[in-house]
Design a protein that fits this description.
Elements: H1 2-33, H2 38-70, E1 72-73, E2 76-77
Antiparallel strand pairs: 1-2
């Protein structure tokens, strides 16, 4: 059961990465079109980046939990 949960966390990180990239494109467009709100858009981008990093850390934790439970790291048997 833990294995399925770890795979879910890894898949969710991919979704978080895609959402961040989408927001980044939107922020760049917003800065180009609405220069007056650029500061707010940059703040939103920074927040999104921090959340994306949280997703990266969650993925790393899931990979190490999988290793602790199964002896596999990123799908490969170690040791």
């Amino acid at each position: 059961m833990a294995e399925a949960s770890n795979e879910t966390k890894i898949a969710e990180d991919t979704q978080i990465d895609a959402l961040f990239e989408s927001l980044k494109v939107d922020v760049v467009r917003g800065i180009q079109n609405e220069g007056g709100v650029a500061s707010n858009l940059v703040e939103a981008l920074m927040l999104a980046k921090y959340l994306e990093r949280v997703g990266d850390h969650a993925q790393n934790i899931a990979e190490w939990v999988e290793y602790a439970l199964t002896g596999r790291y990123k799908g490969e048997v170690l040791g």
